[in-house]
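Box 3.1 A note on notation
Throughout this textbook, protein chains are presented in two layers. The first layer is the amino acid sequence; the second is a token string describing backbone geometry. Keep the layers aligned when reading.
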Amino acid sequence: MKTIDPVLLSLLCFVSPLACDAQQSDPPLHEQRDAVAESDGEQLPGRLAHVVEPTARSQPDDGGPHAKHLAPDAPGPAMPEAKLAFEELSTLIESKYVDGPISEDELWTGAIEGVLARLVQLPGHQINTLLSPREFEELLVGTQGSTVGVGIMIERVADVVVIRGVIPGGPAEQAGLEAGDRILGIDGQRTRALELATVVDAIRGEEGSAVKLFVQRDTEEWTEEITRGRVQVASVESTLLGDPVGDPVGDPVGDPVGYVRITSLSKRTAAELDEQLEQLEQQGVRRVVLDLRRCPGGLLESSLEVVERFVPPGRTMVTIEPRGREPDVRVSEGEHPWQARPLAVLVGPKTASGAEIIADALRTHDRGRLVGQTTLGKHTIESIHELPDGWAVKLSVSRFAFASGERAQGVGVRPDFQIPMTGQLAPVRDLATGSDPVLAAAMELLRTQ
């Protein structure tokens, strides 16, 4: 069994067929929870103060984000002589189960899944889990920041496979494909009856191999042969929200405001963040909205590198608490121009793990006000252990405490301003404060700084 380093902060989502060559429209990373959390009653300055939720406290059993500190359900008691009981169960399934018998591999897979289910989890969210080869591959794409394919993100709209986005520099962009194009066939097979995951598998393949896509754009139809290649999957996107002469999305007066969205924490995230911040700076940006609402985590070191872009050196970022060893306090290092510039941070229930470390450190060290909803509350670090035949297991190997000191599993980071998000998170190119009250509130905060 091989263990993959570096240690991961769980991405929490593996089964969706997205990564590089396909992405479902805003796939849920976990179930939505009651959005009303405890609030200190602080109000936003100016005309957007009314959008802040009134002070409220979740009742003990209402399912709110702080009900019973979101303690995971404790597993039942261990059965005495359970090994003998398992052998008896195997015999019963073999001889009497109505849809049986089942294979020995199915039996032992279920046993592995059952063991992992008894380990530390969050309600509705598997932290310790068995990964199929496909799930393992998706996890690696999310942390390595690259995959082999043609470089498109797709979704199904009314039984039609539609290109949602084209990854810059990828084979699909070089072939001239565009967002909105419809893929009607792959290597001569129609896509209408295929599951989206099957479409993804058909488009992917070995590097250097070719795939023929039957494409429709408006009334034009053609077959495009594309050679698959290594595609870099961006984890950071940015845009300009306003300019000195006014913009319907951004700040009508003053300096322009930048918007940066981090969607995962991969090996390339810090470098991508530096590139995006430099581009914004060249456009005169000195204030930034950092959006972590759809960031489920990723690599631990990447989360700390992001913190160091905004927090001065010598500040505690996180405390790692391994089993049987002394705690490891990680402290920020290095200078960066954005460590003293105005910042607002967007968070929500899908902000998890490494993204929570970032959000808490920025708020703890007075580097950014948090706007949105309480985060997931994940306080464990996982490593990935390879198993035979492409399978893997994700296992918690350490706990961690936020910079604020919070370490209770299930207790997330509470925003300074509690504002629920309405609808889906729009693509960066389509941002509009009118339909995103969380972003609008952050813009209002930055106007006062």
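The radius of gyration is 23 Å. The chain is about 20% helix and 25% strand.
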